[in-house]
Amino acid sequence: MFLSKIKGSITTKGVVLFVSIQLVAIIVAFTLFGIIPVGSEVKKITTEFGLEGVRGNKLPAEKAVLLERVRDREHYESVLNSALSLSKTDSISLLIDLNDSLAILSLKGVSLFQSKISEIEFNRGLKKLPVYLRDSLYSGPFPVKKELASIEKFPIVIKKAPKDTTEASADDAAPILPIQNDVFVLFFLDNNLVIEINQQEHDLAGSKKAYKDFKANYSRFFRDHNFALIKDKNAPSYLYRLKISIPREEARSIYRALPIKPYVLVRY
Amino acid sequence: MKNNPSKLAFTLVTVFTAVAIILFSFRKSENLKELSYLFYSYPPVPGNYVSKDSLELEKLLKNTERRITTSLRRLENLLPYGPYLIINTTQNKFVLRTRKGIIREGICSTGSYILLDAGDGKQWMFKTPKGMFPILGKIVDPIWNKPDWAFVEESLPIPPRNHPDRLEYGTLGEYALTLGDGYLIHGTLYQRFLGLPVTHGCVRLGDDDLEMVFKNLNVGSRVYIF
């Protein structure tokens, strides 16, 4: 009924009008949800680091290489200093060394566990951030503000005490083991950086529900961020994202070893 | 548009589609932001260093390298001088090592994360504590002084403190190392469960591994559990 009414009224003028309005909607949406937040982030960084007058300065290649080297060593120094400051705490912390492709757990300056990172992925904002700016964003250490995970931090199994000795001896025969779900973790750091630690295995070994629940929370996290952007002018307009993949069991060890709201340090 | 009803229908479809586009774009904001970054860039050199000449930069580099060496040395000094033990409670693995390298590695058993509920508000959580622990004592042929939960688990009456029924011989293997708060590193009769999280919080090792750990670690040696 409704469609037939429209069918009857389709004219070239109508089609042009319809397409034009939708194009305007696309442009408005792209501007509102893409250009404006990114533009404001770029402006914020440009102002914060005093880069307004820098554009256009061309350096001799030799000096540019030297500058790059200076920044690289300065960054390494800041990572070492952060590691030293973390060694004074009683908590286990995580160092993501993108230079050597390693995720390292450390406690009081002692490296407890290392996992080889098989895949590293940045989002475009992070990729475009020049080396000298990454330093302020990366090294840290930064505390985790929010975290999501597809596994529990503590795989607690509740067991009722046996009623009699027969029930007790039946319990003894086979140990109760925790369910081993797939491992996907998201850490949202204090500095606007989202670190995703994913299992490198593509096949799902655990329950599909746990995976789906994580994916739902994952989408909600970014949706909430976008809603916050509408409500609060001071909310971060852009999230920098770093994704790493490591073997499932190693990712599980890392997540479970870390305290709630741990400190994370990144070396590029 | 021929008449008013079809005009209204057209308007509705147009507005509905436009709203749908905007809502869909909102959902996909992350992708739009990624796309938008194509239009932006940052200057390639840091502002505060542009004015420095090569000599100044070389000097800066040298000073930074010197500070790096100092920091590396300070970090190295944080490592224990003697052998130390690292226990991974998730994978139930251990590594006995020194600064120079690994002495021995293998499987162990750690806390099961079982919460034993005996009713009347009595509960026990069987987890291995995490952190750094110095070895407080070394025992040969340890005797297990069974805590209350061991009787609750077997559905047996709980004897009074220091009652001889609490003492069990041979269960903890030939050696034990104490970590404090009742936590031990000891042997086990349940060798088949090594590599699984089945203990009440202590760390169980296989016989040969336990002997090696016992001989290499002294009172004060560090155990790192994560």
Uncertain segments of chain B: none
Rg of chain B, Å, rounded: 32 Å
Q: Give a short account of the largest sheet of chain A.
A: 9 strands, mixed
> Judging from the principal axes of the Cα atoms, what is the shape of chain B?
flat
State which percent range the strand residues of chain A make up: 15-25%
Number of helices of chain A: 8
Into which percent range does the helicity of residues of chain A fall? 40-55%
Number of helical stretches of at least 4 residues of chain B: 6
Which oligomeric form is depicted? heterodimer
**Mean pLDDT reading of chain B:** 93
H-E string of chain B = HHHHEEEEEEEEHEEEEHE
Architecture blueprint of SSEs:
The complex is a heterodimer of chains A (268) and B (226).
Chain A: H1 2-9, H2 12-48, H3 61-86, E1 93-97, E2 102-107, E3 110-116, E4 119-122, H4 124-128, H5 131-138, E5 142-149, E6 157-160, H6 165-173, E7 184-189, E8 193-199, H7 208-231, E9 240-246, H8 248-257, E10 263-267
Parallel strand pairs in A: 1-10, 8-9
Antiparallel strand pairs in A: 1-2, 2-3, 4-9, 5-7, 5-10, 7-8
Chain B: H1 4-27, H2 29-36, H3 47-50, H4 54-76, E1 84-88, E2 93-97, E3 102-109, E4 114-117, E5 123-126, E6 131-134, E7 137-140, E8 143-145, H5 148-153, E9 167-169, E10 175-180, E11 183-186, E12 203-205, H6 207-216, E13 222-225
Parallel strand pairs in B: 1-13, 11-12
Antiparallel strand pairs in B: 1-2, 2-3, 3-12, 4-5, 6-13, 7-10, 8-9, 10-11
Key features?
heterodimer; A: 22% strand; B: 226 residues; 9-stranded mixed β-sheet; 13 strands; 33% helix; 25% strand
